[in-house]
Design a protein that fits this description.
single chain, 568 residues, alpha/beta, 5-stranded mixed beta sheet, 42% helix, 21% strand
Length: 568
């Protein structure tokens, strides 16, 4: 393979030859042959990395989206194949460059660079990733100062801040995630004076994931800190959450035994006269996230356990084989299982419900329209062999954070939230597919604000705390799912209903998608405030054709990632 790598380096420098596509494809074929011949995971990662480099360089000459798509896919496979190798870190760095220089998605590039720092702290590209993060922070600071001072930016202040993250809740860039567990992080500032009340503690659990929600009647400052296990005392991980100027309601139990494999116990008490404390005893811990949601104010804690090594069942009488992260060769089926790429169970989330009607147009309510659509979609998916779960099948209210928790705790492979839109302008219309990310337009902010039941200003504030959450979210996968679903839905519906309009694939920070451990999208079927869209959503044939297109999109996504996970 070394000779082929030298050929690639030479071709990059050869201005006369590198304009011809045939030379690049010939190199790609050689790297593919090397990939097929290699035995070790690290050498496979090396071949995959250079396959990505080949298509990355080719894309820079051809400007074909398919070449950049191949590059991103091969980089992703290199990362998955040997996560601890230097080639995984290099592939992650190149992936970040794709988003920065080709897709022009600065926010996503920031997250990809963060993944170099956190997931591959010892790679040869870590320092370069740090530098890129500082540059992006300076650019962001410039924008903030420009907004605040009509474009007048003081460079001295900018340079003083360059070595620190600009967003107040961005993780520290100078240390890997594994070293930052004992942390104390303040919440956004309290917006109301006086004592708040902690009136409920809710939780949902599985053997790999637990979500705990602290319900309060007003915003508070809060702090959290993780204490590591003490073998001498026999204590587990303990996560403290202190709530400033908060009193605990008598309705909240002081102690609850959970014993779900991750979380063993929840304790709460009035720690001081003006401070409540909640303590989570955690038996097994890989990582955790703490964040706040608004309207009503609540604090969400997501806890993740280490993934168990997978075991392959063999013939009777033969020993079992344990698949460890440093595995050698795997069958395609076992690889799909270990990488979490198997698509079988789909959670459908009909938006709103119960006391929350969603958008209302005349006698029509969004909660009813989306429930009807969700059931039609569910039947289509079941006909194609998928297992379908629902967050609700009746007209009941379910908090947004509970919907994601249901999907995580039941180990769904995909999450699809179904909605219908609304706008003050009755001429605005169109089908839209969203995935979780920073909002890139004022309209995307407006939609997210409506679905989150907060103001657009809150959406702007919310974007400041998204980075850490997104490190554990399947953003790339969700974007791919959104694109497939949108394309196939338009193909399915557009031929029969020519008046269907589309606003494409968008991104925004939706509460209902936050913390999802699987690819997750939110559909806006159309605008109930537009007569044409509303007429379509009342048509049974339109619903069936849309469900058929959505199902085709899911199948296309499944087939692509399963094909891509196979290394043969």
């Amino acid at each position: 393979m070394q000779n082929t790598v030298k050929e690639l380096q030479a071709l990059i420098q050869d201005d006369k030859r590198n304009q011809y596509r045939s030379y690049w494809l010939d190199l790609a074929e050689k790297f593919q042959r090397s990939l097929d011949q290699e035995e070790s995971a690290e050498q496979k990662a090396k071949a995959l990395y250079y396959l990505g480099r080949t298509y990355h360089e080719l894309g820079g000459k051809s400007f074909l989206p398919s070449d950049f798509e191949h590059a991103e896919e091969f980089y992703t496979k290199a990362i998955r194949e040997s996560p601890t190798s230097d080639y995984a870190g290099r592939a992650q760095y190149r992936k970040a460059e794709l988003f920065l220089n080709h897709h022009r998605e600065t926010d996503q590039a920031y997250i990809e660079y963060l993944r170099v720092v956190y997931n591959h702290p010892n790679t040869s590209k870590t320092e370069k990733a740090q530098e890129q993060l500082r540059i992006l922070d300076r650019i962001y600071l410039e924008k903030i100062k420009g907004d605040q001072a009509s474009g007048e930016v003081q460079m001295e202040s900018e340079l003083e801040s360059a070595s620190q993250p600009v967003l107040q809740d961005r993780p520290l860039l100078e240390r890997p995630l594994s070293d930052s567990l004992d942390r104390v992080t303040p919440s956004p500032s309290k917006t109301e004076t006086g004592s708040a009340e902690l009136f409920d503690i809710r939780h949902w659990s599985s053997d790999e994931y637990t979500r705990i929600v602290l319900d309060l009647d007003s915003p508070v400052d809060y702090y959290h800190k993780l204490l590591k296990p003490d073998p001498d005392l026999g204590t587990p991980h303990r996560l403290f959450i202190d709530l400033e100027e908060t009193r605990q309601s008598d309705s909240v139990a002081n102690e609850e035994n959970v014993a779900d494999g991750i979380l063993s116990r929840i304790r709460s008490a009035q720690h001081t006269r003006d401070k409540s404390r909640v303590v989570l005893d955690i038996e097994t811990l890989d990582d955790f996230r703490v964040f706040a949601l608004e309207n009503p104010f609540r604090i969400v804690v997501d806890v993740y356990s280490p993934k168990e090594p997978q075991v392959l069942q063999t013939k009777e009488g033969e020993p079992e084989i344990t698949l460890d992260p440093e595995r050698a060769r795997l069958s395609a089926g076992s690889l799909l299982e270990q990488l979490g790429l198997k698509i079988q169970t789909i959670m459908i989330d009909p938006g709103h419900g119960g006391r929350d009607p969603g958008a209302v147009a005349g006698n029509f309510k969004e909660k009813d329209i989306v429930l009807r659509m969700s059931k039609i979609l569910g039947r289509k998916l079941e006909q194609k062999g998928f297992d379908v779960l629902y967050t609700r099948t009746e007209d009941v209210f379910i908090p947004l954070e509970e919907r994601t928790a249901m999907a995580n705790s039941q180990k769904a492979d995909l999450f699809i939230s179904v909605h219908a839109n609304a706008h003050p302008n009755p001429n605005v219309r169109g089908f839209e597919v969203y995935y979780l990310n920073f909002a890139q337009s004022e309209d995307a902010k407006r939609v997210a604000a409506r679905e989150n039941a907060v103001s657009t200003q809150k959406i702007s504030d919310l974007q400041y705390i998204l980075t850490d959450l997104m490190l554990s979210s399947k953003i790339s996968e969700s974007r791919e799912l959104a694109n497939k679903v949108h394309q196939d839905t338009m193909d399915s519906v557009g031929g029969m209903f020519t008046d269907l309009s589309s606003n494409g694939v968008r991104q925004a920070p939706f509460y209902v998608l936050m913390g999802a451990q699987m690819p997750a999208i939110l559909l806006e079927m159309g605008y109930m405030t537009n007569q044409t869209d509303m007429r379509l959503m009342q048509n049974d044939d339109f619903m069936r054709y849309m469900a058929r297109g959505l199902t085709r999109g899911v199948i296309a996504y499944r087939d692509k990632i399963e094909k891509f996970a196979r290394l043969d």
